Amino acid sequence: MRINGELGAGIGWSAATLLTGKGLPVAHQEAVLEERAVSIVLNGQAYAVMMVTPEHLDDFFMGFLWSEAIIHDPEEIITWEWVTENGAWAVYLQLTAAAAERAQHKRRQVLGGSACGLCGTPLLAGLIPFAPLESSFCCSPVSIRTLMLQMQEQQALNHSTGTAHAAILGYRRDYLVREDIGRHNAVDKGIGAAIQQGLMPGEVNVLGISSRLSFEIVLKAIGFGIPVIAAISGVSSLAIELAESHGVTLIGYARDDRMTLYAHSERIQKDWMPALSPLCD
Fold it and tell me: Which keywords annotate this record (predicted)?
């Protein structure tokens, strides 16, 4: 397999054989989504090893540390450096004393896969370090549909490989999209990108995802003050419970001119009203 060597490339090429019922096997080179081990080292101590698509990696660790409640302000990251060897990546970060102490209390125990949001967390107690949200934001169903369509249009990695998850963050009548092999990673990248663009908790109104919606993704949204989450696929029971208790509007099956509201539906207008922009506020 041949992999692009640039940081942030995200796509490699593999020899493949196509079999169909229409003729002989066809050998060709096929685009595949990269998955690499990324070690996160905080103040000289290994914190976690995550399986990530190596694109927008600065966004990833920024959003990951925020979602872990290790940093409360981007200024708590003093400096960082990326190192790569034999196809694996490591980021060495220097944190302030307060952030380093939080990390020490939350240190993970095992490798976290690309499909894993809370793998390796030592204790299940205290998994929700964020307060319930209070937000007066509301929008129409068609604005949610528009945002989800924009996410699909912007999925460059998925268009090339058919393998990437995506997250879209809607804010100030604008949006940003990030992709990854892992749905949790895509959300972390989105939050990290928002932070690096100067957005702070409560300034992003909607999170859309291209996958199912689980507890961990609701938790990440709460941590960044996002009051509405929409998923193309279904939602889990624990996601609904967390959304209900923490003031988050939860939407599943947001596709094909339909959606299902599971929690705090008061933020969504009940008639399918037209909107002039992706977000109505």
Answer: Cytoplasm, Molybdenum cofactor biosynthesis
* Model confidence at 52: pLDDT above 90: yes
- Spatial CB neighbours of 226, under 8 Å, sequence gap ≥ 6: 133, 169, 204, 205, 206, 207, 248
- Both tokens of residue 96? 């302030």
Return the H-helix or E-strand segment holding 147.
helix 141-153
Residue-by-residue DSSP string for 86-132 = TTEEEEEEEE-HHHHHHHHHH---S-B-TT-SSTT-S-STT---SPP
pLDDT tens digits, 114-130: 455 555 554 444 567 78
Known catalytic residue at 138: no
Active site residue: 116, 119, 139, 280, which one?
116
**Which has more pLDDT, 108 or 86?**
86
Angle between the N-to-C axes of helices 57-67 and 183-196, in degrees from 0 to 180, rounded to the nearest 10: 100
Helix (H) or strand (E) holding 184: helix 183-196
Which of 3, 27, 26, 33 has the alpha carbon at shortest distance from 15?
Answer: 27
Q: Is 62 helix (H, G, I), strand (E, B) or coil?
A: helix
Is the pTM higher than 0.85? The answer reads yes
Query: DSSP letter string over 214-280?
Result: -HHHHHHHHHTT--EEEESS-B-HHHHHHHHHTT-EEEEEEETTEEEEEE-GGGB-SS----SSS--
Domains annotated on the chain, with CATH: 2-33 (no CATH), 36-106 (3.10.20.10), 141-267 (3.40.140.10)
